[in-house]
Write a structure and sequence with these properties.
The chain has 257 residues and is an alpha/beta fold. The chain folds into 2 domains: 160 residues, NAD(P)-binding Rossmann-like Domain (Rossmann fold, 3-Layer(aba) Sandwich), CATH 3.40.50.720; 78 residues, Translation Initiation Factor IF3, CATH 3.30.110.150. It has 8 helices and 14 strands. Strands 6-5-4-3-7-8-9 form a 7-stranded parallel β-sheet, sandwiched between helices. A 5-stranded mixed β-sheet has the order 10-11-13-12-14, with helices on one face. The chain has a two-stranded antiparallel ribbon with strand order 1-2. β1 and β2 form a beta hairpin. α2 packs across α3 and α4 runs parallel beside α5.
Length: 257
């Protein structure tokens, strides 16, 4: 593990670093709940952190491409090789190295950096955990399967202070239900989405013109936040911020590119 005044160089060895230089971070599972929350923190503290690598499953190529555009990593790993063409297209020719498959995610986990955040779900995260530890990276571990499946091996590999388990147990999620009567309420409603709260918008009692204005405004808000929008009944719409995973039988898809 590197000390406060050092970081691994391209070969993983400590090199002298300015105290003012941001700490480099690899985010695994960047399009999932843990990854997006971590990137939110990094975005608010750019003087302290920078992203050197991202890894994701590949199921949300547009979200991943926007993360690449915003944080400028050196490398992107896509766990599903079949998703690589969609990711490459979403990147639009942006110059970034793309690694494919589970081995690619493990390679990203060992990428030169100060800290690896492993938010990859399921058993796939174990290989990334082992790769990061073997490379000598400090590991913030939010993948509980790594400890359940490979606990003894993980503990043998980890040096004192190298592994930091992150609490990832279930937490209650506040769902906001809004029944606006006028457009004046839309700013307050949008704040819930900006604070990553899922929202059920009921426009049944709102006049048609006002309802459309509210829907247009919140559609733009959820799009800017990389979230999703579903019609669940006539006049009732569900907004899911990026940190909320939604599973539905047959969504009437409204606003995802």
């Amino acid at each position: 593990m590197s000390n406060a005044g050092t970081r691994p160089d391209a070969h993983g060895d400590p090199a002298v670093r300015s105290e003012r230089e941001p700490r480099s971070v690899v985010v695994l599972g960047s399009t999932g709940s843990i990854g997006t929350q971590a990137l939110d923190v990094i975005a608010r503290n750019r003087d302290r952190f920078r992203v050197t690598a991202l890894a994701a499953g590949g199921g949300r190529p547009q979200v991943l491409a926007k993360q690449v555009a915003e944080f400028g990593p050196e490398v992107v790993a896509v766990a599903d090789p079949a998703a690589v063409p969609a990711v490459r297209e979403a990147l639009g020719g942006r110059p970034v190295k793309i690694l494919a498959g589970p081995d690619g995610v493990a390679e990203a986990a060992a990428w030169p950096c100060d800290v690896v955040l492993n938010g990859v779900t399921g058993a796939l995260g174990l290989a990334s955990t082992l790769a990061a530890l073997r490379a000598g990276r400090m590991l913030a571990l939010a993948n509980k399967e790594s400890l359940i499946i490979g606990g003894p091996l993980v503990k043998r590999l980890a040096r004192p202070g190298q592994l930091v388990p992150l609490a990832s147990g279930p937490r209650s999620q506040r769902v906001v239900i809004a029944r606006p009567r006028s457009f004046d309420e839309v700013q307050d409603i949008a704040e819930h989405l900006k604070n990553r709260r899922p929202l059920i918008l009921n426009l049944e009692d709102t006049d048609k013109e006002t309802a459309q204005r509210i829907l247009n405004f919140l559609s733009g808000t959820i799009y800017a936040l990389n979230g999703e929008m579903y019609r669940i009944a006539n006049g009732v719409v569900f907004f899911a911020p990026q940190n909320v995973e939604t599973v539905v039988d047959r969504p009437d898809f409204l606003s995802r590119d």
